[in-house]
Structure formats: C-alpha cells, structure tokens
Request: fold
Amino acid sequence: MSSNPSTQPRRRVAITGLGAVTPCGNSAAETWAALIAGRSGIGRITRFDPTGCTAQIAAEVKNFDPTKPLATPLHPRGPGGEPLTQALTPKDLKKFGRFTHLGAAAAVEAYADSGLDAHRAALNAERMGVNLGVGLGGLPEMEAMHDTWKAGGYRKISPFFIIQIAPNLLAGQVSLLLDCRGPNMSVASACATSGHALGEAAAAIARGDVDVMIAGGSESTVTPLAVGAFAQMRALSTRNDAPEKASRPYDKDRDGFVLGEGSVVFVLEEMEFAQKRGARIYAELRGYGATADAYHLSSLAPGAEGSARSMRAAVDRSGLKPSAIDYVSAHATSTPGGDGEEAAAIAHVFAENKSTLHVSGVKSMTGHLLGGAGAMGALAATLAVHHGVIPPTINLDNIDPACAELGLNFTPNFAVKKEVRAALANSFGFGGTNASIVVARA
Reply:
C-alpha cells in the first residue's frame, strides 16, 4: 500500500469488517439475526433500581463478557509479537469504563472479521487509524465515583477514574490493542457521533491520509442521572408495562424513545488493497454528508431542512442518483415530533422513487444507542446491501396519519427480501447536528 498520500487521487472505501455489541446481540451476526427477525432488546432496567422514575425501561446489553477468549488469537504486531487473545483482561475491567468494554470488544470483532490480521506484513501501522466516537463518555463511572468520594473522601477516588471516563480512551485502547499508529481520535456530536466518525474516517482514506480506519461508536449511559434527565425532558417512553412494545417509530401511539447502550464498529480500507487481498467486501462507503440546522438545540428544524441537506450531500458525493437508493435506515427515534419531520425530509429528497423506497427504524428493536446510534443505523444499511434483506420497523401497528400521507413504505413489522443496490443511513443529534452515510454494492 502506498505511503505517499500527496500523490494519490481520491480513493474508494471498502467496508471489510463489522463488530457489534448491542441489546440485540453480542456480535454483528447475532445483532443482524435479531433485527431481521424483528426481535426487541428492550426490557425493564436492571443496571439500577428505576423505582420512582416515570421511565423504567431501557435497551441493555446482556450476558456480555469482554474477557471472553477469542476463537482464534490475533497477531496485530506480526507473527513475532505477543498475540491478542481477548479484547480486555480481567484487570482491564476496573481500569476502563463500560463504554470502553463494549467498544473494545466490537472493534476486535470487526478487525478479526476483516481478515486484515493475515496481511499485517503488507500493512504500515502508521497508515492505520482509529476514529471511535462516544457521546457522553463514562457517566456510570462518574456517578459511582461521586458517591464513593462523598462517602469516603479523596483517598477513595480511583487512580483509574480519568481513564474510565475520558471519551477518547476507547480509541486509544483500540489503537494499542490493534497496533494502529495513524490518526487516533474520538468524535463527540451527540446522537450523530458515530455517523460523523464513519464519515470522517472514510474521508481520511479517500484523500490518502491513511489506508485503514477502525471507525464507529460506543455508549453506555443507562444510569439514574441519564434516564432521569431524559425522563424530565419528557423524551422517553413510559410504556413500562410493555417494554418490547415501547419503541414504535411512525406509530400514532409513540410516546418517546427508549435509551439503549452498545457499540458498533467498522473496518474501512482502501478498495484496491481490499480487492487484491481477496477480502470479503460488505459494501462500499460512497457518500457522506454533514450539516447543521442552526435552529434549535434539541429539536429538528422545520421540515427537517438540515437533515434533508445532509442526505442530499451524501447522495451527491456518492455519485449516485437519488433513485439508486433502495433503502433508508432512518434515525427514527420514536419521538412524536422527530419521526414525522425526518420522514417528510426523506419523502422530499427521494420524491422520484419514494413509491419503491423502503424506510425502517431499527431503534424499534435496539433502543437509542446515542453515540453508537449512527453506526448502528449504518450497520443495518450495510447488511441490507450485502444480504438483500431490509430489517423492519417493529411495533408499527397504527401508522401516524401524517406519516402515512407521505407515501413511504416504513417496512412494518416484518423484514423484506429485496435487492438493495444502495442504502442511506441517517443520524441526527442535539445541537442541530446531522450525518448521513451512503453505502452501495462494491
């Protein structure tokens, strides 16, 4: 692979590895199987006692062990280097926050899935980078350490506390684990975080700065303060008696989003090298759009104007026509206002092919992963292209009339087998920030 980026033309970007730890499964394969089966990962909160809070449900990662031995040891430092046998050691669990536990496991899975480990001799570690976004960082650890300090004083504060909470420590740990010595960074843009991380990572490859990027996002903020704060904003569903039915994008009875946790990570690499080494290429990351509403800190602009510009930018930069997009993996949080605004923007951007376009909201199953949400949506888009299956929007029993009149197919309740030439994934966040990604058949 070339080490002189200044002489390279704009390059294509292949998606060759996927990793995921989500409420729907502890791997990308498990998560995808749950999505196409329409299986929810939402239940009553177990990470703390939610009694007294109006929202008592969340989408938690279950039965997760980041110290589980890898099926096959990896050798990111070459045959002579120390093998990597697990994402984290038992000692690491106290050193890092839960978002790093989740993200490190997803990143190691994505790297193993890519097959790059067998080709490390042909890779320059200085041209391998990491961009793993985290929206809120180590909020569970902040809450716990505050309680520890209040009870026991300064001597009880852990020397690992800063490492536990700093959002960029996930990217730092992954670069250490996988010997990535190129750009190392962490995006923080609320719920658009990992959409931006993927887009910026792809841009770095396209302009020749790097050859490989480990990119995506992670979040774990199912805590009393986070749940309580979102509940006080009246943003969360209070369907506590039926958790699996609570997240229901586009349904007229939706009453808010469900907080989730998890991590989704991609391996992106320069297309020519991926093809030459015979890599399995899930899809090509062809377009990226990033915009700002400049309207409101927590609400979409009227008509989701900024979101529409983000989608148009991603499609334009992909070199495709809007009519080539067969599926939109929507942000679709299950909030009364946001779903309809985004849907109207989708209908406007894809007006010429909206009768054949499929749209779905996988947060109906995963909940809202905040900093991991953009990558979660991009995973659904990528695997829809790869497998020719579109995951559903579950719990869509009575479509909102305002959404129905748009004429879009929101893929209610059951997956649909269909050739997907290209797909777009949206993620939008507080602060009026928007990210859209286009993936297509390579």
